[in-house]
Amino acid sequence: xxTWNNRIDIAMAVLNALRxxxxxxxxxxxxxxxxxxxxxxxxxxxxxxxxxxFGLRYNSICASYPPTALETEPPSLNEADxxxxxxxxxxxxxxxxxxxxxxxxxRLRKHEGKLPEAEIILARRHRDWFVPLLMQExxxxxxxxxxxxxxxxxxxADEHSSDEANDEPNDEHSSVPFFALYLFSEWDIAxxxxxxxxxxxxxxxxxxxxxxxxxxxxxxxYLAQFLSRDVDRIDEMICNPRVNMYVRWAVVNSxxxxxxxxxxxxxAAIARIESNFHxxxxxxxxxxPGYGQCYELSAGIVESHHTLGGSLKSMFGDDDRxxxxxxxxxxxREYSDVQLSDSERQNALLKxxxxxxxxxxxxxxxxxxFDVPEPKPLQATNSSIRDSVNSSKRPTPTITSYAQxxxxxxxxxxxxxxxxxxxxxxxxxxxxSGKKFKQCxxxx
Length: 444
Description:
With 444 residues, the chain is mainly alpha-helical.
């Protein structure tokens, strides 16, 4: 039985048969052979009407020929009838192809918490058809974001909305750019670079509206894949104050991939990172870091610099103002002399995932956003009741989110108050899972 999963496959096969060399009659016969067993259960009303209309016309034309004329291969039809049937088949299956394409793109736009594996597999089979469509969808989303009011206008509008409305997730934006970032890497589509760079260069939260947390996970690999011969553009993005700070952090992290892939030496990468650090510093009043530089960017710089075996002491020197530009929760000053050996650096680089994605589905299956487990009912047992009674006799630790601010207080196991510090999104999660914070407790 024909389902939506393979309806587009048949439509593409028919249209491809019509493009093959040969006479009109031979192309028509090849197209009709591709329709063997073709059913359209579950097709839209528009497609069903088009099928019925074509079927009536096909039967009408064939009724004017003796059965022997239709049994030959190819059948003996005159040129006018052949041309009419070819046009009818092409119109019908272009309609089917477009309808199924829209169905697939719509599923990618709103994934509703489930990884659209079937749609991604279909897009793989018809990559040449879907690449320009995905790129156009990215451009449309970028244009939408460019037309939105500035942040101040949005904030003033939000003040008039209810608290309940503010708690609702933002469903305005398509998820296609998120999936496209992975697919373009898997398919090695260098032509996608201009539109992706345009999206990453949007101000404020625009890049995260498009690509979500794939900015931290995928953007460094994507840029290392497609800018390996134009590293100057990576430097330009890092030093561009109009680019989102977290995007700049992610861009810095492309250097370890470039070194691992031998597109740039470790010494050259370290020199660029140190240069970018000093270019992005803005000294404010009283020698303090100014608005043009924040701790998140310097944290990314420190992370990549250390991974490549650089010495923080050589980069920052003895100037206290240099040390004030990076997040001390990421790397403490007293560890500035700690430097990776060549073997440690090689091991760290080898642990990085491949620059080009081989299977985007494997990359996406671990994302918590696609994992919506069924809630299990709690059943009270004698042991759990005993544990509950016993636990009331001693202080109980309160579990708080690691994403809360520095002023958040929680009750420790000793009954004392402790302060929970803010954990950067790209740092290891304090819960000990081994995952990055953004992929673990930050999602909870």
